[in-house]
C-alpha cells in the first residue's frame, strides 16, 4: 500500500476578485522511501499542494474544497485538529524555502529543535538537547555543541537550511516535504544541500516530495516527477523517462530553459513565452493553450484529461491533445522537441499578447 495517496485534491482561495483555483484536481501517490519531484513555475500550485497535505492552508481565505489525502491509511482531511497536530512534525515534516523567515529569530536553535522532541517524543530537556546536538552533527554543522545555543541570524544561509533539515528529521518522520529547499542558496551550497537530502533519504528510508521550479534539481534526486501547471498535473513519468522522452509542450519549455553541458553548440536558451493564466478565470480549454506554439483548434475548445501516451512507458501520462489518440489529436506523438520549436508565427502572436497584457496591467492598471 502507498504511504501517501492524494485523490482529486482541490484547494481554493476566496478573494474579492473571485475564487482562485490554486490546486484543481491533483491526484498522485508516493511509496515509502520514495522521492517524488513536483515541478513547475511560480504560481502553478506546488507549494499550496504541500501546505494542503499538512492542512496548513490559512482559513480564510483558503479552503480545501474537495479530495482525499490518505497518509498511512488515514484520511488527513477527516481528522480533527489535535490529530493533525500529532502528525505534523512527527510523521510528516516540511522544509520551507526561506529558513530565515521559517526560523524564530528570538529563540535559539536548541530551543526550536528540542521543542518538537519534547512534544512528540516526550523527551526531557537534557535528552532533547543531546539529540539536538546529534542532529546538527548529522546534517554537517561544525562545532555543533558550541553552536547549539546560537540564534538564526548567527548562521549563514546554507547553515540555516541545514538547521531546517535537522528540525525536519528530528522525529524521524515517514515523509518530508521539501519546498524549494535550495532557492536562496548559491550553486555550490545548493549541491551540498541536495547531496545531504539524498544521503538522508537513503539512510533513514524517508519518503520525500521535492518541490522546485528547476528540473535540473530533481534530475539526480527523484525516482518520479509530476509536472504542474495552473493547479493541475500536466505530465507524470519516472525521472529517466521524463528527461529522455518528454511529451507535454510545457515540459519541453522547462527543459529548453535549462543550460546543458552536453550541447556541442551552445545554443540560446528559449524561454516559455507569455504569462501564466489567471486562476480566477482560466482558459476554457487546455490551460497552456494561450502560451503553446504547437496549439490547434481542439486545444481551445476542451481541456484534455491526463492520459497515457502511445509511444511511452506505461506509467507516462500527459494532459495534451497533441499526444492523445483521439479525433483531431495526436499530432505531437512523434515530434522531436529539440529540433521542432513549433509555429514561429504563433510564437510571435504569444509575445504580442503577453506584451499587451503587461501594458494594460502597468502602473494604475
Tell me what the structure shows:
By secondary structure, the chain is an alpha/beta fold. It has two domains: 2-222, Rossmann fold, CATH 3.40.50; 229-352, Rossmann fold (3-Layer(aba) Sandwich), CATH 3.40.50.300. It is 33% helix and 20% strand. The protein contains 13 helices and twelve strands. It has helices at 46-53, 81-87, 99-102, 109-120, 125-138, 144-147, 157-169, 187-204, 215-219, 239-244, 249-256, 297-301, 344-360, and strands spanning 4-15, 18-30, 35-39, 62-71, 74-75, 92-95, 175-179, 207-212, 224-229, 232-238, 307-308, 317-318. The strands form two sheets. It has an eight-stranded mixed beta sheet, sandwiched between helices. A four-stranded antiparallel beta sheet has the order 2-1-4-5. Helix 8 (187-204) links the parallel strand 7 (175-179) and strand 8 (207-212). Helix 4 crosses helix 5, helix 5 packs across helix 7 and helix 7 (157-169) runs parallel beside helix 8. The longest helix is centred in the middle third of the chain and has 18 residues, at 187-204. The chain is globular, with a radius of gyration of 22 Å. It starts with a strand and ends in a 5-residue tail after the last helix. The model has no long low-confidence stretch (mean pLDDT 86).
Amino acid at each position: 500500500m502507498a504511504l501517501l495517496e492524494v485523490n482529486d485534491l482541490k484547494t481554493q482561495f476566496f478573494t474579492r476578485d473571485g475564487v482562485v483555483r490554486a490546486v484543481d484536481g491533483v491526484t498522485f501517490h508516493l511509496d515509502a522511501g520514495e522521492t517524488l519531484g513536483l515541478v513547475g513555475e511560480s504560481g502553478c500550485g506546488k507549494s499550496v499542494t504541500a501546505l494542503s497535505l499538512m492542512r496548513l492552508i490559512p482559513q480564510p481565505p483558503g479552503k480545501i474544497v474537495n479530495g482525499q489525502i490518505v497518509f498511512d491509511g488515514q484520511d488527513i482531511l477527516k481528522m480533527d485538529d489535535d490529530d493533525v497536530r500529532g502528525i505534523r512534525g512527527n510523521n510528516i515534516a516540511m522544509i520551507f524555502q526561506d529558513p530565515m523567515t521559517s526560523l524564530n529569530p528570538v529563540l535559539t536553535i536548541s530551543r526550536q529543535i528540542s521543542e518538537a522532541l519534547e512534544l512528540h517524543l516526550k523527551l526531557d530537556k537534557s535528552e532533547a538537547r543531546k539529540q539536538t546536538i546529534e542532529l546538527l552533527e548529522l546534517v554537517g554543522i561544525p562545532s555543533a555543541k558550541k553552536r547549539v545555543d546560537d540564534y538564526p541570524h548567527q548562521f549563514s544561509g546554507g547553515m540555516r537550511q541545514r538547521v531546517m533539515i535537522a528540525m525536519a528529521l528530528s522525529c524521524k518522520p515517514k515523509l518530508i516535504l521539501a519546498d524549494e529547499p535550495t532557492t536562496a542558496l548559491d550553486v555550490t551550497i545548493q549541491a551540498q544541500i541536495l547531496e545531504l537530502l539524498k544521503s538522508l533519504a537513503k539512510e533513514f528510508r524517508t519518503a520525500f516530495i521535492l518541490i522546485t521550479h528547476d528540473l535540473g534539481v530533481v534530475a539526480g534526486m527523484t525516482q518520479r516527477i509530476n509536472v504542474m501547471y495552473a493547479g493541475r498535473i500536466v505530465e507524470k513519468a519516472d525521472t529517466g523517462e521524463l528527461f529522455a522522452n518528454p511529451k507535454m509542450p510545457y515540459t519541453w519549455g522547462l527543459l529548453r530553459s535549462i543550460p546543458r553541458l552536453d550541447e556541442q553548440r551552445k545554443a540560446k536558451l528559449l524561454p516559455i513565452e507569455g504569462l501564466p493564466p489567471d486562476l480566477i478565470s482560466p482558459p476554457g480549454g487546455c490551460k497552456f493553450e494561450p502560451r503553446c506554439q504547437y496549439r490547434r483548434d481542439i486545444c481551445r475548445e476542451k481541456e484534455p484529461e491526463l492520459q497515457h501516451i502511445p509511444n511511452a512507458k506505461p506509467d507516462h501520462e500527459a494532459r495534451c491533445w497533441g499526444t492523445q489518440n483521439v479525433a483531431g489529436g495526436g499530432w505531437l506523438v512523434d515530434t522531436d522537441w529539440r529540433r521542432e520549436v513549433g509555429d514561429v508565427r504563433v510564437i510571435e502572436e504569444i509575445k504580442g499578447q503577453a506584451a499587451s497584457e503587461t501594458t494594460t496591467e502597468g502602473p494604475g492598471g
